[in-house]
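WARN retry 2 of 3 for item q-0093 after timeout on previous attempt; input resubmitted unchanged.
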Amino acid sequence: MKKRVLIALLLASFLSANDIDGKKVFETYCWGCHHQTAVAFGPPFNEIAQKRTYEEIQAYIIDPESMYKAFGYKRTVMTKLKLTDKEREAVAAYVLSYKGK
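OK item q-0093 returned
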């Protein structure tokens, strides 16, 4: 019984250690141009969250040059970010957490 509990605790610890914090990804890669609720160089997350879906946010992160026209922008200055799938998913979820704020 103790072995099962220990294994379960180790597994839970391992899985939670692999979770990526969208806020930390934002602070590392996005904060220079975007802020959560204030206009910076790029639009704030609360504005993006009102206009975009989870999939659209990820698509723009992957390839902003191919997406800016689809979003109705005249140009884009956002660079391609080399994020892992998990980092991109985490930051997209973090952006959407500002919907309605």
